[in-house]
Every structure is written in C-alpha cells, then in structure tokens.
Amino acid sequence: EVQLVESGGGLVQPGDSLRLSCGASGFTFGSYQMNWIRQAQGKGPEWVSRIDTGGGNTDYAESAKGRFIISRDNAKNTLYLEMNRLKPDDTAVYYCWIGGGGNDGATGCWGQGAQVTVAS
Length: 120
Fold this sequence. Notes:
By secondary structure, the chain is mostly beta strands. It has strands at residues 3-7, 10-12, 18-25, 34-39, 46-51, 58-60, 68-73, 78-83, 92-98, 114-118. The chain contains no helices and ten strands. The strands form two sheets. The chain has a six-stranded mixed sheet, with no helix packed on it. It has a four-stranded antiparallel sheet with strand order 1-3-8-7, with no helix packed on it.
C-alpha cells in the first residue's frame, strides 16, 4: 500500500522558515519524480515544485522560486521542502504527490497533508 506522510507544518510568522518532510513507503520511491502541491482554503490545488528521481533536476512555481528548495533522500525514502521567507500567501495545506516514473502504480497518489499557516 502506498503511503505518504507529511510532517513539519505549523504556525509561523512572516519571514520565518519551515522544512516539510514527506516519508514514503509501499512503492519504489527512488523510481518516481516527486512533487509538492498546496491547497489554500477555498482554492484549488496549486503545484509548487518537482524533483526528478535522482534529485539533480528541480522546478518551481513562480511563487516558490528563490524561496523554496525541494530535495530528496532516496536512501531514507523521504522528500523535503525547505521554505524560506514565508508569506501569508503561503498559508495552505501542503501535500507530497507522486509523479511519473516507476511501474508499481504509485503515480498520482498523495498524502494527508501538512498545514502551514503564516500569520503575524
């Protein structure tokens, strides 16, 4: 069974930093591109960032460029999102989402999410 467990969210002030983690199990983590998406209350999902299987190629939404850093540790089956200079507009539930790559049917799965609230 595919499982993704996000952690590291919380309530922070504008300008603060947070690091989200996503622990993965039940699939060949290192074979899949991985993503972070977020959903603010009352809005649709927004893609935030992606990372390739080896971690060498990354991509970011304009809203995240220069502030967020995606990374992964395939030995630990864990995806990370370091978020810096947080803004109130970053308030959302953040999900890790499995992209393409592997062949064990995990593409499209996501976790339960981690709430990030940025407020003064």
